[in-house]
Design goal:
The chain is an alpha/beta fold. The protein contains 18 helices and 14 strands. The strands form four sheets. A five-stranded parallel beta sheet has the order 12-11-10-13-14. It has a four-stranded parallel beta sheet with strand order 8-7-6-9. Strands 3-2-4 form a three-stranded parallel beta sheet, with helices on one face. α3 (about 55-65) packs across α5 (about 95-105).
């Protein structure tokens, strides 16, 4: 890898030993993928927002950076909190969470605590090179915004943040952003998270291009998150909707797709639990990725004047939760029995105790993939199971 004089100096220790090791990490990371150089990034986003016992090496690196008075060189945001205030056992497991948050904020990181960073405080533009971790944020940035980030991991993400650099390979390069799989849609009633889940299982690390459908911003968010979870997809396109797929010829770089598949309404139905299982679920979780204010308001309308049939939790972006708490609709939702949180439902519910394992119903393709025992239902089916769907 060819380094600039400044980069080589940092590697040689000009900014201290811990920064040298961060630079060495990026050089080794890039060399593994034959990256010719390191390039500047516009922003970073970190996954390591949890303090839990098995990430000890990561916490040690953070501590050393803080002790060396290092701060991030680019705007940097954080994934959601893990839910240490959710239940007593969460507080015990995440007992060092506040210490970890103080360490991260000492590095100059913006304490947004959201996986939907691109909505408010870390908004990239088309063509921006990013050093992001968090699969749902990365796929949205690449696909819907047209920014460029590889699917970076914990540890690599913080090295990018403090150096302001990332290796140039993968999705930073034009040739790797072309479509590979064409997905035709034969669907009567759209269920974007289910569609994303199915596409992920088919695509598996490839770039799918969907034939035109007028997805909303929220549908793109939730569909992409499911795709990134079930199949490690880092970028997708929608014909005539996303910036790098104005038409199919452009999306595929003038070539032909490797494969053509059709997803039908029956395919969407195939991943849903049957009605009995949905109604037998012990609880309902909505918001993975976290809900925006617009999503929350739209869903909350169904709960006005109702009482829920089973526990329901909303998981919002912190900024959205703050804004929502000021609306009259917020009290209506609380009156219905809904619990409103700002933490990550995956982390919070992974530690659930006393209500069994096969208990959580969700309209999130991402949560369905990652959380053991989760059952999937469309948003309409979930509202029906909650007892608030208007007939």
């Amino acid at each position: 890898m060819q380094l600039t004089a400044e980069q080589q100096a940092i590697l040689d220790g000009s900014e201290g030993d811990v920064m040298a090791r961060c630079m060495q990490t990026l050089v080794q990371y890039g060399s593994a993928f034959s990256a010719p150089r390191l390039v500047p990034i516009k922003s970073a986003h970190l996954t390591g927002s949890f303090k839990i016992f098995f990430y000890t090496a990561y916490y040690e690196i953070v501590r050393q950076l803080v002790d060396a008075r290092v701060t991030v060189k680019v705007p940097t945001t954080l994934n959601p909190r893990p839910g240490y205030d959710y239940k007593l056992h969460n507080r015990l497991i995440f007992k060092s969470q506040k210490w970890h948050e103080a360490q991260l904020e000492a590095l100059g990181i913006t304490p947004n605590y959201s996986c939907v960073c691109y909505r408010d405080v870390n908004v990239p533009e088309y063509g921006d090179v990013l050093g992001w971790a968090e699969s749902s944020a990365i796929i949205f940035a690449n696909s819907v915004i047209g920014a460029r980030s590889n699917r970076n991991s914990i540890m690599v993400d913080i090295c990018q943040a403090v150096t302001g650099l990332t290796p140039e390979f993968g999705y930073l390069l034009d040739e790797n952003r072309k479509g590979q799989l064409l997905v035709k849609l034969d669907i009567d009633e759209m269920d974007a998270p289910a569609l994303g889940f199915l596409i992920g299982r088919i695509a598996v690390d490839r770039n799918p291009i969907l034939t035109h459908y007028p997805f909303t911003w929220s549908e793109l968010k939730n569909m992409g998150a499911a795709m990134a979870s079930s199949g490690g997809v880092t970028m997708f396109g929608v014909e005539g909707l996303t910036p790098e797929a104005p038409d199919l010829d452009t999306a595929f770089g003038g070539g032909e797709p490797e494969e053509v598949v059709t997803i039908t309404q029956d395919d969407l139905e195939s991943i849903r639990a049957d009605k009995r299982e949905q109604h037998d679920s012990a609880m309902i979780a909505i918001g993975c990725p976290q809900m925006t204010l617009e999503e929350t308001v739209e869903i909350s309308k169904h709960f006005v004047g109702k009482k829920i049939a089973k526990p329901v939790s909303f998981h919002l972006m912190p900024e959205a939760a703050m804004a929502f708490s000021k609306l009259p609709l917020y009290q209506e939702v609380l009156n219905a029995g809904v619990e409103v949180y700002r933490h990550c439902p995956l982390a919070g519910l992974s530690l659930r105790i006393g209500i069994g394992k096969k208990d959580v119903l969700t309209p999130s393709g991402k949560l369905y993939y990652y959380l053991e025992g989760t059952r999937y239902g469309s948003l309409e089916q979930v509202l029906d199971a909650a007892g608030v769907l208007d007939s």
